[in-house]
From TrEMBL:
This is G-protein coupled receptors family 1 profile domain-containing protein. Residues 39-290 form the G-protein coupled receptors family 1 profile domain. One of its GO terms (molecular function) is thrombin-activated receptor activity. It is found in: Cell membrane. It comes from Anabas testudineus. The gene is P2RY8. The chain crosses the membrane at residues 23-49, 56-77, 97-118, 138-159, 187-214, 235-260, 272-293.
Length: 341
């Protein structure tokens, strides 16, 4: 285990002493915290108490909101850490726990958005698949539990390793800002860990999500009204924006920084730190996903803010039931439209 600052590169030491950067990151975290707690608090209230029935899509949205609220609750600790000049004084266990919350939010969000995209794809592009399955809500709950289990099992080293790092010459103890080689037992273990994060938990879901939304837009472009297609495009744009703006930079830089730090004694620490900051923005954008993905959520929100409701013809066919994979109503509605044409 490395326990001295002599092996830290100058860029990392410089960042720890850069007050302006610390304040700027703290301000971003403060803004994200307020938007996160207000937006996702309202979303959770709408999804749990005002949205019925609790379809599979709603269950996925509740799961996504839960991870966002957990991040919002953890951010004040990160803000305090930044404002104290990267000094962590809450102990090793709390450092590991809050780090786990950060990365669990990211990867559970990635997997949940992939699940929502598959839901839209199967309901709109493949309406006949799994139409006879009755326990769609149970499948959604099991899927959410599987996501949490997968992410927590991959991130398990974060809970079993001391993520703090003492820097005597600066008089600070950092929290997950200095990577330790002994967090994992071997180079192979590190390779497996980084590969799983970058490719299994990010790149694969990103490819699946992109495929699903492109297919949905193409399908609606042929069979649906312009308003339906426009809403599908907005939903796809927001989801892909979250991936490219929030998740992609952090995963790419985490992989690159880890390799450089572990094997070449170099780093991209400044860029990685900023990308971690931007990764939290996903919790502010997720409520927009609910708005475009669920007609019921959209109508309830419009009622609260006294906005006029849109006409029923302006809603997506899939939103008539808004359930996992397909519904007879959505399929029959498509047949009825084709017959009228």
């Amino acid at each position: 285990m490395r326990n001295n600052s002599s092996k830290l590169d100058n860029a990392t030491l410089s960042l720890f002493q850069n007050v302006n950067t610390s304040i700027a990151i703290s301000v971003i975290y403060m803004i994200v915290t307020v938007i996160n707690l207000v937006g996702n608090g309202l979303s959770m209230w709408l999804l749990i108490f005002r949205t019925t029935p609790k379809t599979a899509s709603i269950i996925f949205m509740i799961n996504l909101t839960l991870t966002d609220l957990a991040l919002g609750a953890a951010l004040p600790f990160q803000i305090a850490y930044q404002l104290q000049g990267y000094h962590w004084n809450l102990g090793r266990g709390m450092c590991s726990f809050l780090t786990l919350v950060f990365y669990t939010n990211m990867y559970c969000s990635v997997l949940t958005m992939m699940a929502i995209s598959i839901d839209r794809y199967l309901g709109i592009v493949r309406p006949m698949m799994f139409r006879n399955i009755k326990d769609k809500k149970i499948i959604a709950v099991i899927s959410c539990l599987f996501m949490w289990g997968l992410v927590l099992s991959v991130l398990h080293p974060l809970m079993t390793t001391d993520l703090t790092f003492d820097i005597p010459e600066l008089g600070i103890t950092t929290c997950f800002d200095v990577l330790k080689k002994d967090m994992l037992p071997s180079v192979l273990a590190w390779a497996s860990f980084l590969f799983t994060l970058a490719f299994i938990l990010f790149l694969f879901p990103f490819c699946v999500t992109t495929f699903c939304y492109v297919s949905v837009i193409r399908k609606l472009g042929k069979d649906s009204k312009t308003a339906q297609k426009e809403r599908a495009i907005r939903l796809a744009a927001i989801v892909l924006l979250v991936f490219t703006l929030c998740f992609a930079p952090n995963n790419i830089l985490l992989l690159t920084h880890s390799v450089l730090r572990l094997f070449y004694n170099k780093s991209l620490y400044m860029a990685y730190k900023l990308s971690l900051c931007f990764s939290c923005l996903n919790s502010c954008l997720d409520p927009f996903i609910y708005y475009f993905a669920s007609r019921d959520f959209r109508q309830k929100l419009r009622q609260i803010v006294n906005m006029p409701s849109q006409s029923g013809g302006d809603s997506m066919k899939m939103e008539q039931k808004d359930s996992l994979y397909t519904t007879n109503c959505a399929f029959e509605g498509q047949d009825r439209e084709n017959n009228e044409q």
